[in-house]
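ligand=pyridoxal-5'-phosphate
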Amino acid sequence: MPTPGPAAAASAVDPEAILGRQAARESAARTYARSLPIVPVRAQGMTVEGADGRRYLDCLSGAGSLALGHNHPVALQAIRELLDSGAPLHVLDLATPVKDAFTTELFASLPEEFARDARIQFCGPAGTDAVEAALKLVRTATGRSGLLAFTGAYHGMTAGALAAGGDRAAGLGGASGRPVRLPFPYDYRCPFGLGGPEAARIAARWTESLLADPKGGVEPAAGMIVEPVQGEGGVLPAPDGWLREMRRISAAHGIPLIVDEVQTGVGRTGAFWAVQHSGVVPDVMVVSKAVGGSLPLAAVVYRGELDVWAPGAHAGTFRGNQLAMAAGAATLRFVREERLAERAAALGERMLAGLRALHCLLPAMGDVRGRGLMLGVEIVDPEADADPLGARPAAPGLAAAVRQEALRRGLIVELGGRHDSVLRLLPPLTMTDEQAETVLERLGEAVHAASAAHRGLPPARAGEYR
Ligand SMILES: Cc1ncc(COP(=O)(O)O)c(C=O)c1O
């Protein structure tokens, strides 16, 4: 008798039982599994099918790692070809044709001035591993230990990366030296009560004067680490002019600028690398997520003159994931050849316009923002008083209700940002126009339904708010 295929196996699974066993066996620290109680068994492009037969449009995309969506034929073909070729799958950090091709494709995608003299260190498979490597690299190269990082930052969950992040709730932040926290522009909840270019100018001015002040209490910094668009911080694009100021100020102090492109890279924001919007040339770039073509891969790329660490200064068993390099090279090539960054820019603009239209109709949508296909909607309490800038208080409960209403309507979205009240959209760059329309429709209905329930009104009918 033939072995049952995956489809037969999927139809035999009991999703409720699996979810029950997961809740009983897995760590209390599990995250997405709590808010998205589904059991995916098949996925293609933007569509995920659960064991219960329900289909979802996935706007989480493996937390932004699936630039081409699930199981894209280009990535699958690269994986299959490697599997069938007899090439070793585990090679530590040895040279292979697969790694050579990946590095060539990655370097070809980098800003030219940066790529010309770049070195790469492959790291353990997660973004946080590459952040650790970047911090170690600049500390070794400069002989300093201080670090400059920003409000709202997220760089991962290992000790050094956690310390660089701004989230106190994530814990252990002080374990490896507390960085100096600098202001990252956040128009909607501007710490200076201004918003806009004036606030960005003041944020830069504060950074400049703090670093220049001999009594400012700032330890000499080994590096300044910044995300060109903060994702976990609440989808906050860094204004280009402000980022250029950070480049100017860090250069003036001889401080290497580390740009964390873990989430923003590979076309996501409408440029191949988000830093290219501003024309800033970093000293160090951290890459992961989409560079592995849906498989785990992370690296730190940096200017040659920083390459002064000793052999073995940064090691790790799993730094040579050949399948990820094959899938990653194919993905980078496809994004370049199909001009998917441009597609993300155009579709992102249209999505943003659609979200702005919903924002006018749905007062729970306090702010909409983003760059390319990295979009966010800040959910607020529509009945609370607004502050002088017009911002209402964050509404985490309502945001969670919107996420649940979206899931009921077949849309996967996650929350992030301050108080977990920003809906984050990270659809694949291959999303079709029709899928984009459906996302907007389902999202609008979800916000409307959750808002009605919040006010104690009966459930809304589809499309009723329009
Ligand atoms: C900007 C940024 N840096 C680093 C990380 C950490 O990556 P990982 O979760 O793969 O460790 C993330 C994860 O979301 C991220 O968004």
